[in-house]
Design a protein that fits this description.
Blueprint (H helix, E strand, L loop, with lengths): L2 E4 L5 H13 L5 H11 L5 H4 L2 E5 L5 E10 L8 E9 L8 H15 L4 E6 L4 H6 L3 E2 L20 E5 L6 H7 L4 E4 L2 H6 L11 H6 L10 E5 L8 H9 L6 E3 L9 H6 L2 H8 L5 E3 L4 H7 L13 H13 L11 E4 L2 H13 L4 E5 L8 E4 L1 H7 L2 H6 L6 E5 L12 E8 L5 E12 L2 E7 L6 H20 L4 E9 L5 E7 L4 H16 L4 E9 L6 H18 L2 E6 L9 E8 L2 H17 L13 H10 L6
Parallel strand pairs: 4-5, 8-9, 8-11, 9-10
Antiparallel strand pairs: 1-2, 2-3, 3-4, 5-7, 6-7, 12-15, 13-14, 13-15, 16-17, 16-19, 17-18, 18-21, 19-20, 21-23, 22-23
Helix pairs in contact: 1-2, 19-20
């Protein structure tokens, strides 16, 4: 396995030769190389003064070198440093050593309190630095020694990065280190026996792939379904994990019981629980408590109930101090007949209504019904006949902002640690359609300025109540924005969620590439065809390259949905601007849908039999 270590003074001459070979690789003439030789030389004293490190391969052979050089803060914008050297042996270019050295430099810079990392790149390396997340800045071309560059000497390209340490909540969540992630999504859902949830838990087993992102740096993933062999490798490269993440998949083909299946394998359970690392689940369950040796306290989860959460919100608001929050009215319909009467009365008064099951995930069991829909269905009874059986909550519908494109659905994420302290993670904007969650975006400036303070303050207050009630773990509070600049809380989720995954990825990318990432998770990106595993891996690699060309990062989040009869992918995309983020998502959706075109004959008059024969010979599975 490749690693980075501090250079030694006795390596100075060998490292100088490596740097010269790397520079010559780009085709510069001997006269140019002779002219820049003093700038490329490494002296023994430089090794310490310039904080020089080397990258070694698995055999201990030095393959690259980099320096991190602190500078005086002459501009008054905080500590600065320069990536004075980053060179890779020509025979090792493209094998990840440059990426390893760059990420090490960003990490070290953050640890030294550096807030701006300057990079004067050879033009041939500019694409590499863009892919690493550095941002080109419009300044005159310069040389490594600060003098203006002439065309005869090779112009350099100025980049900047903003090193940042992991936020405090990351250090508190798993102690700032690796954790074992248990994808018990189906197990969590099954304990509520809600009629709105899929009994076979097929979707839940797919969403268990999000276990890859339960913390910013996993040590092991425990998954119910088998995942594609290339998936974790690509995710690991994008998020800088390295090859040491262990994957235990294919443990549950049917049913929700992942934790008990692991416990039934003493060697596996001992390896996971005995590693001395935190075990992080999607959500708390009694079987997970047995696996983790954690006392099971079922009342911890009582506010997963939408009715109980609504009552909690009411108690917090009754105490005052949250003028930007308004609570929609909610009524429990003890019978379907009572629900029919409530819905009919509201429709008759021209009011839209939200119908909710007691539990449900991702919008499951939540239906928005307008008066026009009641009329079109033939009455309230006909509407309710189409919904899952079981108790219903009838809730006032909150009308959203009138401005087109204004955020409507927002969420607060945080967690309660083992000592009962509440840690604020942040706010996000969700993509919700017809009551169903489809994705979320996190990052700087995503939540409107007017909503930030009420959202964060109320989320903190909910967290304190959850802590007092004994809950320990991740939680969120979902809101809808009304037309008067207020937020209406709608439910709590006592588990990890899609937005929480986006926060984890944003924290990791900020640490690797520099601060300021926007991250969007899209639950379902439609695929134009069902692909074999090898072709799916190729598609994901293609999407990663395409997003990198835009200045974005692509991470496949849920790959197993690609093998469904109606295939889909869950994905994450990240960028430093909303425009690039939107472009990356559009590219991913278009190329994912276009994979079906490979099965269409180029000429519509061509014999379909020949097309079918070609597909069969290519080993492609088509549905």
């Amino acid at each position: 396995m490749a690693k980075v270590r501090a250079a030694r003074a006795d390596e100075a001459r060998a490292l100088t030769e490596l740097v010269r070979r790397s520079k010559a690789h780009w085709g510069y003439g001997s006269a140019f190389l002779a002219a820049v030789a003093p700038e490329l030389r490494i002296d023994a004293a430089d090794v310490t003064a310039r904080r020089i490190v080397v990258a070694e391969d698995a055999q201990g052979v030095v393959r690259g070198v980099a320096s991190l050089e602190l500078e005086l803060d002459l501009e008054g914008d905080g500590p600065r440093a320069r990536l004075g050297l980053l060179f890779v042996e020509p025979s090792a270019i493209g094998r990840g050593f440059g990426r390893l050295l760059y990420r090490d430099a960003v990490r070290r810079a953050a640890g030294l309190g550096v807030r701006k990392l300057l990079i004067d790149s050879d033009p041939h390396a500019a694409g590499f630095y863009r892919a690493m997340g550095a941002v080109a800045v419009p300044v005159a071309a310069v040389l490594a020694d600060g003098r203006p560059a002439g065309a005869s000497r090779g112009e350099l390209v100025r980049f900047e990065a903003a090193p940042v340490p992991p936020p405090a909540w990351v250090r508190a969540w798993t102690g700032g280190g690796p954790a074992v992630h248990v994808g018990n999504v189906a197990e969590f859902n099954a304990q509520f026996a809600d009629a709105s949830l899929d009994r076979e838990q097929r979707a839940a087993h797919h969403y268990a792939c999000l276990a890859a992102f339960y913390s910013p740096y996993p040590a092991a993933l425990v998954l119910p379904r088998t995942v594609p062999s290339g998936w974790i490798g690509l995710v690991g490269r994008q998020l800088g994990w390295g090859p040491e993440v262990e994957v235990y998949d294919g443990l549950v083909e049917r049913g929700p019981g992942l934790s008990d299946v692991v416990r039934a394998r003493p060697a596996l359970a001992g390896r996971l629980a005995g590693a001395g690392l935190p075990l992080v689940p999607w959500g708390l369950t009694e079987p997970f408590g047995r696996l983790a040796g954690r006392p099971w306290r079922p009342r911890e989860l009582r506010y997963e109930s939408k009715a109980a959460a609504h009552a909690l919100f009411g108690r917090i608001l009754a105490a005052g101090g949250h003028p930007g929050i308004v609570l929609p009215e909610q009524w429990r319909a003890a019978t379907r007949r009572a629900a029919v009467r409530l819905l009919a009365a509201r429709a008759g008064a021209g009011e839209s209504t939200v119908l909710k099951s007691e539990h449900g995930v991702g919008g499951s069991g939540t239906t928005v019904v307008s008066p026009a829909q009641v009329r079109a269905a033939g009455g309230a009874r006909a509407v309710l006949r189409r919904l899952p059986r079981g108790p219903l909550l009838v809730e006032e519908y909150v009308h959203g902002p009138a401005e087109p494109g204004a955020p409507r659905d927002l969420t607060y994420d945080g967690f309660v640690d083992d000592a009962g302290r509440v840690h604020r993670v942040g706010g996000a904007v969700m993509d919700v359609e017809d009551g169903g969650y489809r994705g979320a975006t996190v990052g700087p400036g995503v939540v409107p300025q007017w909503a930030q303070r009420p959202l964060l303050d109320f989320g903190d207050a909910v967290g304190r109540e959850l802590a007092a009630a004994g809950y320990r773990g991740w939680f969120d509070v979902d809101f809808v924005a009304d037309g008067a600049g207020r937020l209406a809380p709608t439910e709590t989720n006592l588990r990890l969620t899609g937005p929480s995954v986006a926060f984890m990825v944003a924290a990791r990318l900020d640490e690797l590439r520099g601060a300021g990432h926007l991250v969007r998770i899209a639950d379902r990106v439609e695929l134009g065809a069902r692909l074999p595993e090898a072709q799916l891996d190729e598609l994901c690699e293609e999407l990663a390259r395409g997003c990198a060309e835009l200045g974005a990062v692509f991470v496949p989040a849920i790959p197993t949905g690609a093998f469904e009869p109606a295939p889909w992918l869950g994905v994450l995309v990240a960028a430093y601007s909303g425009e690039v983020l939107d472009a990356a998502e559009a590219l991913v959706r278009a190329r994912a849908l276009a994979v079906g075109a490979m099965f269409d004959p180029p000429d519509q008059d061509q014999e379909r039999a020949q097309s079918s024969k070609s597909k069969t010979e290519a080993g492609l599975r088509v549905t």
